[in-house]
Amino acid sequence: MRRQLAYGKYQQMQVKSADKGNLLLMLYDALIVSLKKAKLQLETDNTDKQEFSDQIFKAREIILELVGALDENANKEITASLQSLYDYFLWQISQSVTEKKSEPLDDVIEHATGLRQAWGQAVQENRAKQPNSQAAQSSNLRSQIGTIKA
Asked: What CATH number is attached to the domain comprising 29?
């Protein structure tokens, strides 16, 4: 119990201190985990209906959070595409629930994983371009230490 409480506090701290890019990646990670857990419940002989419902609810909430994070002032074409994709995710999840099949979840997991990888690369590239990024600061600090030693 203590370990769960400590881990929960650690997760809260991670979220509070994360930048927008990391928050987005955390959402995708949580979505993928929830969908995999729900899929596992569907494929298990002793399906825990409550666990399945909890994971589906969590996945839907995450998708709605992703929808809410869309910036309509940004690239309208990308925003519209993501909105359509998130609507598709919600539809596929509903299909999985009503048909009691895991295949629709597989589809959402596959697409969410691809999006997570693409956003992860974009976040990494954006950080590399920013002069105040942690990587840039670390590199700058190493070069300063090198000049001090010389």
From this structure: 1.20.120.340
